[in-house]
Every structure is written in structure tokens, then in C-alpha cells.
Amino acid sequence: GLFEDAEFSVRQCDLPQEWMLVLVSDGILELMPEDAMLERYSALLSVNLDLDEMTAGLDILADQHLPDDIAFLVISRSQGDG
């Protein structure tokens, strides 16, 4: 809905038995302690992502004015998921 002339293409790829896709808004990056944006990206990519760790403490931000939205989407598949 932002651009009337936007064009999109559909792509498909085979995924391994275990994988994880993590999408984060830039609001999460703005809350990270690293000074430079590339350092924030690097820190985010270098951690072993745990959903409980990612969401711990977010409830205390609910009543605070933040500079941007905080959003993330995690989609994963492990061998036991079938």
C-alpha cells in the first residue's frame, strides 16, 4: 500500500532440515548498546537466538516512549518439527 507501482517477484528455495528466519525492525537495533550500526548488525547475527531471551524485558518497555517500533518475527524448523 505504500507504492502504487511496486513490483514483486516470487522466489522459491529448498531449506535444510533445521533453519531459522529472524526478521527485526530497526527499532530493536536502536535499543542495542553498540555505537555503530554495523556493530549492531554483527552483534545480532553472532548470538545464538533464543526467543525467551529476545523477549525478556520487553514488558518493561510497554509504558515508555520509544523512538521507533519494536517488532520481530521468528520462523524456525528443527528436525523434530516434521
Task: Write the topology of this structure.
Elements (H helix, E strand, L loop, with lengths): L18 E6 L1 H6 L5 H10 L4 H5 L16 E6 L5
Antiparallel strand pairs: 1-2
Walk me through the structure:
The longest helix is centred in the middle third of the chain and has 10 residues, at 37-46. The chain has helices at residues 26-31, 37-46, 51-55, and strands at 19-24, 72-77. The protein is an alpha+beta fold and 82 residues long. The termini are far apart. The mean pLDDT is 77. It has a two-stranded antiparallel ribbon with strand order 1-2. The chain is 26% helix and 15% strand.
How would you summarize this macromolecular structure in one to three sentences?
This protein has 82 residues and is of the alpha+beta class.
Query: Outline, from the CA principal axes?
Result: extended
The average pLDDT score comes to 77
E-strand count: 2
Poorly predicted parts: none
Radius of gyration, taken over Cα atoms and rounded to an integer in Å: 16 Å
Structural class: alpha+beta
| Share in helix | 25-40%
Note the beta-strand portion.
5-15%
Strand order of the largest sheet: 1-2
Distance between the termini: 35 Å
The major beta sheet can be summarized as: 2 strands, antiparallel
Give, in order, the helices and strands: EHHHE
Total number of helical segments? 3
